[in-house]
Design brief:
Jelly Rolls, globular, single chain, mainly beta, about 5% helix, about 280 residues, about 40% strand, eight-stranded antiparallel sheet
């Protein structure tokens, strides 16, 4: 089975997948937060978004709830804009968050797919919070609840407020060939889970493409290999064993099992993947 999604950090809310540990963790530290604003931008493709968190710090996050999406401080609140019927995407969300929140002088600023949104209190009342490390893609740093179900393709952090023109630049370049403004850029996590600013891998646990292959649109796919099962159950359920994963050129994306005389179990299949 093949699902066409952008290759990236695949987050799932079930707990079956682990890479180096348990929990749905894509966690990193921002070298320098901004004052008065730190800007976060995410290219993402959701499979389910209602009740999920796109990213978070210590009870200061971006939350899909209350009929919309916006800033949540752990007090059952969302300050943002209405959003319903979200398609698979990818979508770009850019959120400039004040160093402390709530802040009447420097309120949050959010763009969605290149459009600056008018923000209102959708539900609850906020608690006083501050930006801080660690930052976690796909949920809180303090809980495994409300995990994002989807793929994060690119994640950016700047230590300043972006201009309208810079947001448009980021959106117009798209997710296949992103062109983030470099001034103040602190973190750029690509679809391979590597921070392109620090040139170092990010701690990733329980975050990878699930059991399908994803076409990135630039001639690469994210693939996983499982073995050891003869049942019709889908990986990664037992008795499948995870072997490895990687991003490979699509012209090399031929998967199958060799053998002679039909000796292989019927559940072994060959998959050939082409650009179209």
């Amino acid at each position: 089975m093949i699902r066409v999604l952008p290759a990236g950090i695949r987050l799932i809310p079930s707990g079956n997948h682990t890479l180096g540990g348990s929990g749905h963790l894509v966690r990193f530290n921002v070298p320098q937060f901004g004052n008065p604003y730190t800007t976060f931008a995410v290219w993402f493709s959701p499979l389910e978004y209602s009740g999920r968190m796109l990213f978070g710090m210590n009870q200061y996050d971006i939350y899909f709830a209350c009929g919309g999406v916006g800033v949540n401080t752990g007090c059952a609140d969302v300050y943002g804009f209405a959003l319903s019927g979200l398609s698979a995407g990818p979508h770009l969300l850019v959120a400039s968050l004040p160093s402390t929140y709530p802040n009447s002088t420097y309120p949050p600023v959010i763009w969605f797919n290149g459009v600056r949104q008018t923000l209102t209190q959708l539900c609850g009342s906020p608690c006083s919070r501050s930006v801080g490390n660690p930052v976690r893609i796909g949920g809180w740093t303090t809980s495994d609840l409300y995990q994002l179900d989807g793929v994060v393709v690119h994640f950016f952090v700047w230590n300043r407020l972006l201009t309208e023109a810079e947001v448009q630049q980021l959106y117009n370049c798209g997710w296949r060939d992103p062109c983030p403004p470099l001034d103040g850029l602190q973190v750029w996590i690509g679809p391979d889970g590597r921070d392109r600013v620090a040139d170092a891998p990010v701690l990733i646990s329980n975050a990878r493409a699930m059991w399908y292959n994803s076409n990135t649109g630039d001639g690469y796919i994210y693939a996983e290999v499982y073995s050891g099962a003869t049942t019709s159950a889908e990986p990664p359920n037992s008795p499948y064993a995870f072997i490895g994963s990687g991003i490979i050129p699509i012209e090399h994306a031929w998967f199958g099992a060799g053998g002679c005389g039909g000796s292989l179990p019927a559940s072994y299949r060959s998959i050939n993947i082409y650009r179209d």
